[in-house]
Each structure stands twice: as C-alpha cells, then as structure tokens.
Structures
1.
Amino acid sequence: MIEIKHRETGAILHTVNAETLSGADLSGLDLSGADLSGLDLSGADLSRADLSGANLRGANLSGADLSRVNLSGADLSCANLSGADLSFANMSGANLRGADLSFADLSGADLSGVNLSGADLSGAYLSSANLRGANLSGADLSRANLIGAYLSSADLSRANLSGANLSGGADLSHADLSGADLSFADLSDGANLSGAVIIPGWKMIKEA
C-alpha cells in the first residue's frame, strides 16, 4: 500500500493499494501539493489530475498520461517525462530544469514562464504550445516540432534548435536566441522573429 502525502503538512491525499505507482490510475484526482519526488510513475494515468504545487523532482513519468493535468507551480526538475502525453497540460510557472521531455507530446500545453533550462526536449511535439517568457536556455530542442508555438520573449540562448520545425507562424518575437544552434531549422511559412536577439546586441527588425 502506498500513501500519497502532502509535501508540507504530511496529510494523506490518496492511498493506492499496490506496491508501485507504475501504471496506476490516478486520473482526475486532487493531488495538489503532493510529494511524489523520486517515485516511479511510469505509464501511470494522471490525466486531468490536479498536481499544482506538487513535488515531482526526479520522478519517473516516462510514458505517463498527463493530458490536461494541472502542474502549475510544480517542481519537476530532473524528472523523466520522456514519451509522456502532456497535451493541453497547465504547467505555467513549473520548474522543469534538467527534465527529460524527449519525444513528449506537449501540444497545446501552457508552459508560460516555465523553467526549462538544460531540459531535453529533443523530438518533442510542441505544436501550438504556449512558451511565452519561458527559460529554455541551454535546452535541447533538436528535431522538436514547434509549428505555431508561442515563444515570444522566451530565453533560448545557447539552445539546440537544430532540425527543429518552427514553421507555421511560430512566434519568436523578442526571444533571446543568442548562441542558439539553428542549423537546418525550418523557419518558413511566417515564423515571427521581430525583435528577436540572434546575435548579442543585435535584434531582428520586422519588415514593413
């Protein structure tokens, strides 16, 4: 039996009659503020659950269903989210520093103001995701799908965007791309780079 407790009060939020949370059905539960740090939640169903403010530092969430989950303000630093479904998730203000999000589905997710510095987003699907003001410095976004993504004012300094798809009107206005690797990136079909910093001290000026 596993007791999921609140990270601060120690109050029991939910009890699972199993020896592991891998593959567990936790969909729709209120687990706000839960302490799930370092736990194995691989393949678990957490869709539509409330995990706002939860501690998931170093947790294994690979292949988990986190669609439409509320992770606002949660700590997911160094967590394994590879191949996870995070479509339309609310992750605003979350800490994902150093997290593994390779090949994860983040389409339509709210990642505004999120700390993704040093995170692995290689091959991730971020179509129409909201990354406004996010910290993606040093992140690996190689071969990521960012079609129509909102990256205005995001920090992409030293990020690896090689082979990334930024077409379809991706918004990079006022983003910091200094030192970023944009080799073989697709910026066609209306990508917005107005005011973006490509070289320190130099900004793109939108054509009239």
2.
Amino acid sequence: MQRKTKSAIVIIAVLVIFGGIFGYIKFSNQIDKPAPEKEKATVEHDGVALEDKIVTKEELLYPDNLIEHKVNEAIHSMSHQKVEAKVKWGHTQITQAKVDRLLAVVKMNDYKYKELYISILERWSKGDFSQAIDDHNSIWEMQGGDESRNSGKATRLLTDEEEKEYVEHNLTYDLYDK
C-alpha cells in the first residue's frame, strides 16, 4: 500500500511541476507579445467622421433617428411652459436650440404626424406661441387625452409672470439647460 501511495505522490508531483513549467512558459510568452492593435471603426455622419464632429447636447437629446413618440413627448412637455392646464406631465424648457434641433429631426424622418410637428415647430422657432393652446391639445389628444378622465387639457396661455413662475418652479433644475 505504501508503494502505491508513494507512486501516486510522485506522479502528482511530476504533473504539478510540468503544469507549473507549462503555465510559466505560456504566461511569459503572453507578456512578451505586444498587444495587437484593434482596428478603429470610423463612423460618419453627413461625410464627417464623428470623432471630428462636436456633438451638441440637443443632438444627444434628439438624435437623427428619434422615434415619433419621443418627438410627440418633447413638444408636449415644452408646451407646458406656455399654457395653463390643471395637470401637466413632463417639463422641458423651450430653447431655440431644442426647437431648431427637433425641427431638423422631424424634417429628416417620416413620421405619421410630420406636418403637424413641422407647423408647430416652425412657429415656435420664430417665437410665435400664439397657438400654443391648440398645439398642446393636439398633442395631448394624440397621447390619449380625454376631458372626462383627465384635466390635462390646456385652457389658456400663461401670462408672462405665470410663465416665469412656471420656469422657476419646474425647470430650474433641468440638467440639460445649464
């Protein structure tokens, strides 16, 4: 019995030694080899390599391939700055850059309500919010707004003072507008 035990121990020891030598050789070969250089993929947009293009925060918020639901949601949230409604879900400050970016995105995509979005955003781009009640309610109805269930329908334009108060109360901490 002792002879078999000694033989097993010797065989195990020899295997451990050979395994250690093999592992050392493989490990040292990996360290000596330079890491292969990975190919860089070049992504282009309108013929400009994206690594060379400065991306604005508006392009990050509203990329070229923005889904229609997000366009709808953005316009609706922005309209809250201009209208009175008992319930307002979503708050996004209206800026020229956001309006212009959304308008560009809408024009480059084939949305179901593309013409409505363009008419709203073109007016807003010119600073015309006189139809903001209709703009809000059109979008609100598309989102399933129903007067009998929800009091989110816009009823009037905010006064300048009310708008200022709305911005201070709801949009002061909008991280995208800092």
3.
Amino acid sequence: MKAHVSEQQRGFSLLEALVAISLIMIVSGMAIMNFGSVIPNHKANSAMDQVLSQLRSARATAIAHRCEVQIQFVGSNQMTITEIWLRGAPPPPTTVSFEGGATFMVFPGLPDIPAPYNFGNSGAIFFGGSSTPPPIMKFTTNGSFINGGNALLNGTLFLGIAGNSRTARAVSVLGATGRVRQYHYDGTQWQE
C-alpha cells in the first residue's frame, strides 16, 4: 500500500525557511554581542582564582610544614611566596604573574566589600588599615595572618582589568584565622 502525499505537504516554503534563518541569525547576533563581556570577566576571574589559590596554598603550607610563609605583592600584577625555614635550606621563592591583563587596582566610585570584611578600599592592596601594605606579611604555623611585628593583619586585595569596572574583584584575608574570601562586583554591589 502506497501513501499518497500531496505536493503541498512535502517540505517548507521559502518564506518559512527565511523566517527560521532570520531568527537563528538574530539569536546568534545577540550571543556574539554578549560574548564580548564574557572574556574580560573570565580573565578577571582567572586572576582572582590565582590569588585565592596562592594565598590558600601559602596558608596550608605554613600549617603543614610548621613554618611561616611570607607574602609580597610585587609590581602591578605579581605576588611572591617565600617559606621561612629556621633550619635547612628553604625552597626558592615562587613568583606568580596574573594572566589576562588583570592588575591590582581600585575602580573609582566602587564601594568597599560588605561587612564584616570591609577593611578599606583606598588602595588596591589595603592591609593593616593602610593603602601602603606592610613590607612583611605572612601566614603563621597556626594559619593566622600577621605583619612583621607579629600583629594580626586584616586586609583586602582589589584587582581588575583597567577600563572595565565589571571586572572588579576582591580577595579579603581575616588575620585571626587566615581565612581567605573572594568577591566580584556585579555592576551594583559586591557578591561573594
């Protein structure tokens, strides 16, 4: 038995195909336009993840190796981690550069991160109540974060990609516990 298919039921008309193609092109165009904001945010997130990873690793090393681990923020986009051993030869310091063009910076007009971790934002590297960070900052064997005078040190590190405030990122360190937290600016407020 053969099914009878009329000429009108065989496929799509030219008009239907054009409508479908135009809808696909409109949706694709919208996706491409939004893709431009995804790349800078990804680069900023990558830099923040590097900072988080290095700080958390330094704290874990200080606890596990029972030695102090010094943190230095160098230039506009680097940090150096140095283990301080009392005996033997320590490993060489590790210097990490951030990927994707992110630098230490505070965007004008952005508020500080939310309480209780709002230690100040008058400088990109804000520790110990000053936008000029102390020369010695380190994690101790119990995981706390201190300065060269062995005083607990709270602070926040701000970073982003110049000219794009939506790439603003922040990492805070709570001195008493050495807890490291991350924040991103969503255009209206800081989110954890």
4.
Amino acid sequence: MSFFFRTFAAAKVFGEFPTTGKENYLTYQNSMKEYNLTTKMHAYQWDELTDEQREVLTIAKEQTKRSYCPYSRFHVGAAAKLANGVIIRGCNQENAAYPSGLCAERSALFAAGAQYPDQPVERLAIACFTGGHFTKEPGSPCGACRQVMLETEHRYGGKMEVLLYGENEIYVFDSAADLLPLIFVSESLKG
C-alpha cells in the first residue's frame, strides 16, 4: 500500500506519472472495499439504572478519591462485580515514568483475576473525576484497557457489562467487545 501512495506522491511532485505506478495506484483504488463498523450502546440517566448498576458505579466514583495521579490530575475509578457477588476496586496509579503507571480498569481486572481466578467479571463500572468534578460526558477506556477487558470476557466465555459514568449520562455496553471492534483474542494467534 505505501508503494502506491509514494509513487502517486512522487508523480505529483515531479509532474509526471510513471506508467507502472499509475496502473498500480488505479488497481488499488478499484479494489478497495469500505466497511462500516457499528456498535450498540445504551445511554441512561442515573435514575434509569438498576440498583446493581448504581452500586458498582457508586463504588467506581468513590475509587476516584484513591487514585494517584499527580501528573495528569485525571482521577479514574473502577469497580468490577464478580459472579460470586464480590466487588473488586481499582483506580489509576501514575508514575513519573508514564508507561510504568496503570489505569483503573486494568488495576481492578488484574486484581480480580489474581484474587478470584475462577470468578467471571459480570460488570465493570468506570468513573472519571477532574477539575473538581466528575466528567460531564463518560470517559472512555484506553486501547490497552479495552484489550484487557476483552481478554477478561474471553477468558470466562461470557459477556461483561461495561458502564461508563458521566454527569450528563451513563453509557452502558452489553459486552466489552462492543468497545473494541476487530477483536484480537487467542484464536487470532492461530492465523
């Protein structure tokens, strides 16, 4: 793909279009397909949620107070409810060497896996706090957290409901897979 684009760019700069480059570029253009990816998400107000959903969101909000984020000042809390009813708490932990920190979602999911390796995570709630208040719109997990969420779901063979808290509304996803299209799981390693 990069060859075709480089050839096309060179032709624009030098005012001529090499025959092979033009043919390759046009062939590429004619064979390109476009796909639309869609995801399903629900948006709720606090009073529209179930008691169980409000319970894990409340804990995620409380966890923002325990985060260690002196660099970003972006507090994130997470709560993972397991099949046995236990709720595991997590929050972001920053480090001056940025890659050495850990997001709230992963801290909760890794703790759940370490403490209760045989218990699926049924629900994961996430809340973000910055500038003296919770974010108006729900915060979205980073790519690494989405991958770990998907692996957690895949590990236990069931869906994990994901709740993202915002003051204006709460997003609810039926599955972590809804947050990460074109998933990469263990079957992907088989080619």
